[in-house]
Structures are given as C-alpha cells and as structure tokens.
Amino acid sequence: MIYTAIDTFYLTDEQLQNSPSRKDGIDEATETTLRIYGCDLIQESGILLRLPQAVMATGQVLFHRFYCKKSFARFNVKKVAASCLWLASKLEECPKKARQVIIVFHRMECRRENLPIEPLDPYSKKYSDLKMELSKAERHILKEMGFICHVEHPHKFISNYLATLETPPELTQEAWNLANDSLRTTLCVRFKSEVVACGVVYAAARRFQVPLPENPPWWKAFDAEKSGIDEVCRVLAHLYSLPKAKYVPVCKDGDSFTFSNKSWNSQSQPNPKEVPTKSPSAIDNTSNIKAAAEVNPESGGSKGVLAKLATDKLKDSKESDESVPIEGEAREDFSMKSKSERRTESSGDKSKDRERDRERERDRDRDRDRDRDRMKVRDRDRGRDSDRERDREESERDRTKDRGYRSKDRAKDSGGHLEKSRHHSSRDRDYHNSAYSSRDKDRHRHHSYA
C-alpha cells in the first residue's frame, strides 16, 4: 500500500516492479512507453496553451504518481494526461478553461493519427461527454493523491548549485534541459529533487567536460550520494537510447480521447469481396463434358452422339445459371446493401446533428430577438417617462410664469387704486375744510351782529 503525504511520495524499485499495470499483464517496456507518451502529450499541450514550464512539470509528476497507484489498463493515458495538465494549471495559479484543454488535445490527436482536423463544437454532445470525462479523471487523481498535490521540482536547485560550484553559464541551460527530460522518467517518484538536481548537474558537466571538485566530494555539500547520481545518469542515458514513444492501446475504457477513431475506422475499413463460386450443377456439367471428351470413340456415330450430349448439357447448365443466383453475387449484393445502409445511417446521424445545431441556432436567434424587443420596450418606456417629465416641467414653468404675470397685474391694480383713494381723500379734506371755514365765518358774523 502506498501512502501519500507532503513531499514523501517516493517508491522503491520493488514497488515500481510490482505496479498495478504489471499486475494487469502490461510488461515493463509497454509501461515505460506509455509513461513517456503521456508526458510528451502534457509537454506539447502546455506549449500550445502557452503555459509556463512549472505547470508542465507539475502535471508530469502528478501523471507518474497517479499511475503508481492505478493501472494503464483501467485509465486511458490521453484522458489522464489532459486532466493532469488541467489540475496542474490550477495548482500553479495559471488556470485554463476546460474548453481550451479539450480543443488542444482533440487537435493533437487528430494530427498524431492523421485524421481530418474537424472543429469541435462546444455545444455538441461529444464536447459535453469529453468535459464530463475530464472532470471525472480529475476527481480520480485528487482522490488517489488524497488531495495532497505538493510538488517540488529540481529546477530551483540547479541555479544555486551551479552558482556555488562557479561553473560556466552555458552549463546552466544544459542542466535545465536535462531536468526537463528527467520528468519523462520515474526519477521524480524514486529520488528527491536535490538528488535529481545533482545528477543533472553531473551529467551536464560530463557532457561539456567541466571538472567538478572531488576533494572533498561536491555532492556531499548538497545532501546527495554518489549511487543516486549514477542512477540518475543511467536512467537519462537509457531514455535517450529509446525511440519516439507511440501510443499502445491497452486501456479497456477506449483508445481515443475524442471518439473520432470509431467513425473513422468504420468508414475507412473496406469490406472484403468474396470470389464468386460456381454452382454445383455447372461443376458437374463441366466434369461430364471433360469425361466425354476424354473418351476415345471408335465410330463416327459415337462421335456425333457425344457432341449432341455435350451441347445439350451446356444448354442446361446455362439455363440453370441464369435461373439460380450465384452465392458470391448475393454476398456482394448483401455487402453493397450493408455499405449503403451504413452510409445512410451515417448521413442520417449527420443530418440529425445538423438539425439539432440549426434548432439551437434558431433558439439563440429567438432569444436575441426577445432581448432586443425587451430593450426596445424599455427604451420606449424610458422615452415616454422622459417626455412626461418634460411636459410636467414645461407646464410647471408656464404656471410659474402665469403666476408672475398675475402678481404683476395685481400690483399695478393695487397701486392705481391707492393713488385714486389718495386723490379722493385730499379732495374730501379740501371740501370739508372749505365747508368748515364757511360755517365759522357765518357764526362769527352772527355773533358780531349780536
């Protein structure tokens, strides 16, 4: 049983030899080829998705760890590789959408298997099935890892080790390339990243013939052992001696990531034509004719009789051939019918898919038209409200103007009445004064006469 903990996912050689794939009957060479093939898929897809190298390295380590617990016969390499890359993009904080990962892997498989590159419709059933399988594979990986996906790469140690050893700068790139190639092997589940970094540095130094200090040994300063460094170099040399990895169909769940091989193989495999065989009556007639020809008649009459018999038998054989159909022709007709039926079925499926796509497009157009109508109605309502507000404001302005004019008129009217009243009051005063003065005069006159 393999237990998973933070930075302790390391196996022994015995555990790797007794892996689940070996128990299912897969030999060591096939398992190595499938591991390299899955890592190649992750590396190539990461480049196409423009992801950093850390994402691809994390995905390859998760890929090796998963197949240390599960068998290649039960989980498809292509689906697991796609889900490992998708999960690694999330772990390294460079997430990609599932649609992008599916489209890239679909295109890669079409190119690798020389299939016609057809665009994958994100609204089709095929895409929904692929997305569901991608998420299922991701859940399987997380379950087997115990949701502990901590990965430590040897790349971060390489620059520090080379700076400490004071090596030339061209050695850094070579060691970096070797570290990337080491991720296609099982070194990441056998040794710690420090040991792998030391082995990569040693291999790069040997390739460029750069001497490293040996008294004291330089690897002891980095907590590594000479046996581990030699094993790393041996595994890398074996990797470079292998040919390019190709896909080996060992999974029971299906061999294709995009389900495109089934339809392609059914269309590309020709039906074998059977050679038409003669009827038994024709065979018997020909044998009788040969026997009659081989007979050596002694008289001319016997010759005429034999010729008549031969001609009669030939006529009978022709009539029987015309009346009875040949088995080979019937089989050819049956095969032609089966081909036509398959073509009609495939064309019917394609027409059904096209009708579904057309219905979906029509539904989308209807939804867009509805949204446009709603927006128009809203705009109209808003326009009406704005017109009403403008009418109200104008009416209020008119009212205020009318009030101002009325107040002015009232002020004018009130001013005229005051002047008139003042004028009248002055007249009245003058009149009363004059009247009063005349009365006083009369009184004085009377008193004076008295």
Quick structural summary:
The chain folds into three domains: 13-241, Cyclin A, domain 1, CATH 1.10.472; 270-295 and 302-346; 370-400. Helix content is 72%, strand content 0%. It has helices at 13-17, 20-23, 28-48, 53-69, 77-91, 98-112, 125-145, 155-165, 170-182, 193-208, 226-241, 260-268, 280-294, 300-323, 327-449.
Descriptive labels:
single chain; mainly alpha; Cyclin A, domain 1; Cyclin_N; cyclin; cyclin-dependent protein serine/threonine kinase regulator activity
The helix-and-strand class reads mainly alpha
Number of strands: 0
Overall 3D shape:
flat
- Compressed to H and E, one letter per element, the order equals HHHHHHHHHHHHHHH
Q: What's the tally of helices?
A: 15
Low-confidence stretches: 259-303, 321-334
The biggest sheet, with number of strands, parallel, antiparallel or mixed sense and barrel status, is: none
Q: Helical content, roughly?
A: over 70%
Please provide a written account of the structure.
With about 450 residues, the chain is an all-alpha fold. The longest helix is centred in the last third of the chain and has 123 residues, at about 325-450. About 20% of the residues are buried. The chain has three domains: about 15-240, Cyclin A, domain 1 (Orthogonal Bundle); about 270-295 and about 300-345; about 370-400. It is flat and about 125 Å long. Helix content is about 70%, strand content about 0%. The protein has helices spanning about 15, 20-25, 30-50, 55-70, 75-90, 100-110, 125-145, 155-165, 170-180, 195-210, 225-240, 260-270, 280-295, 300-325, 325-450. This is Cyclin-L1-1. It holds the Pfam family CycT2-like_C. InterPro entries: Cyclin-like_dom, Cyclin-like_sf, Cyclin/Ssn8, Cyclin_N. Belongs to the cyclin family. Cyclin L subfamily. It comes from Prunus avium.
